[in-house]
């Protein structure tokens, strides 16, 4: 089993801790050929194939191993979460302990000393995930059920994140796509990139003061 780091924003960390997020989508780099239209189910050896609709050919298959292997692992691999953090002395305590901005007290969220998630060492990570499935699809192919697995929940008569940091009143799928646009910029949904769909379950929690 391989153990890899993965970055999550504070709202996504809270969704994982709440048990509402069991999937993440990450852009495939580099993107497959622009004529790729769909993905055939994996072969017995685990390979997946892009089907290319070429006007000059009846059809050509391109093995996914022509692009980089999934950087987030395969089923059975571990992912340790990197999030915004800092070392501080707890109130009524001694020594330095890791604190996490995603679940910090309101008075401390805007405080000093927070470090970017990219700089979190493995020993201070409090969330470990086990990869249960990996597949490839285009962003707009996400279903309502998968949008819910991304952490979207029913809230206030519509759908959004459970902590209220994102809201969209249509349906789970549109809520997720609007969240993607907010994170990745204008036009990122329309671009409809191929994405890794990484499914996971929470394996363990360690350390941390908040």
- Radius of gyration (CA) equals 19 Å
Q: In percent, how much strand structure appears in the residues?
A: 25-35%
Shape type: globular
SSE pattern, N- to C-terminal: EHEEEEEEEHEHEEEHE
Q: How would you state the average pLDDT, rounded?
A: 84
User: What distance separates the N and C termini?
Assistant: 29 Å
What is the overall number of helices?
4
How helical, in percent, are the residues?
10-25%
What is the oligomer described by this structure?
Answer: single chain
Strand count, sense and barrel status of the largest sheet are: 5 strands, mixed
Number of strands: 13
Description:
This protein has 210 residues and is an alpha+beta fold. 15% of the residues lie in helices and 32% in strands. The chain contains 4 helices and 13 strands. The protein has helices spanning 10-18, 106-109, 144-149, 172-184; strands spanning 3-7, 23-27, 36-40, 49-52, 60-63, 78-82, 85-88, 97-100, 127-138, 153-155, 158-160, 167-168, 194-205. A hairpin with an 8-residue loop joins strand 7 (85-88) and strand 8. The protein is globular and about 55 Å long. The mean pLDDT is 84.
Task: Write a concise synopsis of the structure shown.
This protein is of the alpha+beta class. It is built from four helices and 13 strands.
